[in-house]
């Protein structure tokens, strides 16, 4: 694809990730109820981390293929879809029925906190002079 718009390209990547994540949740929820949760969560998060390394590696390897980035995002979405069903099952078994809503509310706040901190850190890095060729550092942090 010879598309010049960064917004369109990022939209493709977001769509690939979110579709695979969404459909992966269905399968992961089913599997999480039937396997060792520790191993299932471990494999999912390890795979997710390896996908982030693969995205950062693309810069060093001078990979500029949209197909490569879409493929890695699809695989990352599938791996990351193991997280939520596993965590919900584990947290539900750790805390009693009376505290579960409060605990899950605190636990789920991490996504919003992470998004806020990510924006603040990125803005600070840009203000300090982070250059366009430094983007792989975001996958290391």
Protein topology:
Layout lengths: L5 H27 L4 H24 L5 H15 L2 H12 L5 H28 L9 H4 L1
Percentage of residues in DSSP E strands: under 5%
Relative helix content: over 70%
Main beta-sheet annotation: none
Mean pLDDT: 85
Q: What's the alpha carbon Rg, rounded to whole Å?
A: 18 Å
Oligomer: single chain
Class derived from helix and strand content: mainly alpha
Q: So how many helices?
A: 6
**Could you give the distance between the termini?**
30 Å
Residue stretches low in confidence (pLDDT < 50, at least 5 long) are none
According to DSSP, the number of beta strands is 0
Q: Tell me, briefly, the overall form.
A: globular
Order of helices and strands: HHHHHH
Write up what this structure looks like.
The structure is a single chain. It is built from 6 helices and no strands. It is an all-alpha fold and 141 residues long. Helix 2 (37-60) packs antiparallel against helix 3 and helix 2 runs antiparallel to helix 4 (83-94). It starts with 5 loop residues before the first helix and ends with a helix.
Task: Output the keywords.
141 residues; mainly alpha; globular
What's this entry about, in short?
Helices cover 78% and strands 0% of the residues. It is mainly α.
